[in-house]
Design a protein that fits this description.
The chain has helices spanning about 5-50, 75-90, and strands at about 60-65, 65-70. The protein is mainly alpha-helical. It has two domains: about 1-50; about 50-93. The termini are far apart.
Amino acid sequence: MRSKRPVYIKRIILLRIFIEKMKVMGRFIIVAGLVLVGLGVVILLLERLHVYLGRLPGDIVLRSRGGTFYFPLATCILISVLASLVMWLLNRR
């Protein structure tokens, strides 16, 4: 007759791996939440300084009777440059 002990050991190992992965995911969710809060604060501060992202010079707005076409070209470039700068600073370590 085969012993059932190895099955329980495998379950315990899998449970420990699962718990470790959940800890990592929990930390990621907390960091993502903090990043979103930080972005919200930055947007509120920019509005108080009368710098409206999406309404910068260079953003394209075409209005007609049928509707409005809006393409924030300057805003996209600014966000891309800032994201590139942040990634460069993080990878410098």
